[in-house]
Design brief:
Layout: H1 4-26, H2 28-45, E1 49-52, E2 55-58, H3 61-78, H4 80-106, H5 116-124, H6 127-156, H7 161-185, H8 192-218
Antiparallel strand pairs: 1-2
Helix pairs in contact: 1-2, 1-3, 1-8, 2-3, 2-4, 3-4, 3-6, 3-8, 4-5, 4-6, 6-7, 7-8
């Protein structure tokens, strides 16, 4: 099917955004937990390259934008301090994943392993570089995002949620795309500049589509249900 990846991409985006909404409905802890899951999945799947709209890119851009939306929602409901704490927690979880992945690679497989070890090596042997690059770009990007969103919120107050998200995410995701591409993917992917351009274009599309969806859905969730959590 010619447009199968494009269809799957929008379906993926829908589920990433919907799970963010459902987590918000459950509460702060669910949002924080979901962000940890997205961070680990982002690092696990980052090396898979696909063709989308004729461009070459990795499969995890929806996760990175989803993470930005989660942080902005945490600030919207519980303040900047909670968003900063969540960034630190996600940083810690990524380090745990890095260490545990290393153990899996160092174990000597049994003869009955059936070749599974080689598959794990193929998936995880680039994990240290990927996660270190991800940690650096993630920490810088989310610091920029939380700072910008806080700044925009001080200016606009409770109004213009969509525009505040656009402003913080457009800038922070540009930084994330450039940093991570050079630190984590240079020499691995076929064309680093294609990845940067394509990845940022896709992220812009994701942000443009996901933010209004999140905005409409959050109106159905009463703010005072979460303020005292």
């Amino acid at each position: 099917m010619t447009y199968f990846n494009e269809f799957l991409f929008f379906l993926h985006l829908f589920f990433v955004s919907t799970f963010v909404i459902l987590a918000l409905r459950i509460g702060k802890n669910a949002l924080i937990s979901l962000m940890g899951i997205y961070v680990i999945m982002m690092n696990l799947f980052i090396t898979k390259q696909i063709s989308l709209f004729g461009l070459s890119l990795t499969t995890t851009d929806s996760f990175t934008v989803g993470i930005g939306l989660i942080l902005n929602l945490l600030q919207e409901y519980w303040g900047k301090e909670e968003a900063v704490k969540t960034v630190r927690l996600s940083f810690f979880l990524a380090i745990i994943f890095l260490v545990m992945a290393g153990f899996q690679l160092f174990y000597i497989p049994h003869l009955a392993d059936g070749g599974m070890h080689e598959h794990f090596v193929s998936i995880l042997n680039l994990t240290p570089r990927i996660i270190i690059a991800s940690l650096i770009s993630f920490f810088i990007t989310q610091f920029v995002d939380t700072t910008l969103y806080s700044f925009f919120k001080k200016i606009a107050g409770e109004k213009y949620f969509i525009l505040r998200n656009y402003g913080s995410l457009f800038i922070s995701q540009a930084i994330d795309t450039i940093l991570f591409s050079f630190l984590g993917l240079y020499g691995i992917v076929n064309n680093i500049f294609d990845i940067i351009i394509a990845s940022y274009i896709i992220k812009i599309i994701v942000i443009l589509l996901a933010t209004p969806y999140i905005s409409v859905a959050r109106k159905l969730i009463k703010k005072n249900l979460h303020q005292h959590e």
